[in-house]
Amino acid sequence: MTPFDLTLVHDEGLDPSLRALERHAVRAVVVRDGALLLMRTADGALKLPGGGVDDGESDETALRREVDEETGLAVTAVDGCAGVVTEHSASRPDDAQPAFVQVSRYYRCRVGPGSGRTALSAGERELGLGAVWLPLPEAVAANRARADGPHRFVRRELAVLELLSQL
């Protein structure tokens, strides 16, 4: 499978060449028995499990940590990079840089039993995040219905889910 490489600009008129604060993230693409492992918010928006890579942390270590924290499952194998999404957006007024760039790398993974316990951040708990297994067409439809909603990540995840559905 050829890895995808997408660039999204969230704020109209934003110059992607602006000096930016950059954040790196990893996301898990886990398919089992025809269903995709996803995180669902209380209002039904979906995202792939994952999150920020800490300073000094490898992508694989971050991926294992994030999947465990969000789902309570253990990553048993990382089977390669499925693709990258680079997002450009305006910074908040109190940020030192005029723009924000998030680079999310998506990895094909396998999971097995883990701790069974989640360790969600305050923001993740506020969103009501919980792990679900859904068929890919159902996930695409759910995020398509929420594409204009309050969660910026839906646009990114919808683009990735649509690409995955073409493979």
TrEMBL record:
Keyword annotations: Hydrolase
Pfam families, sorted: NUDIX (PF00293)
Names of required cofactors: Mg(2+)
GO molecular function, one term: hydrolase activity
Domain Nudix hydrolase: 21-159
InterPro entries, sorted: Nudix_hydrolase, NUDIX_hydrolase-like_dom_sf, NUDIX_hydrolase_CS, NUDIX_hydrolase_dom
Record-stated family: Belongs to the Nudix hydrolase family.
Protein name, per record: NUDIX domain-containing protein
Organism expressing this protein natively: Nocardioides iriomotensis
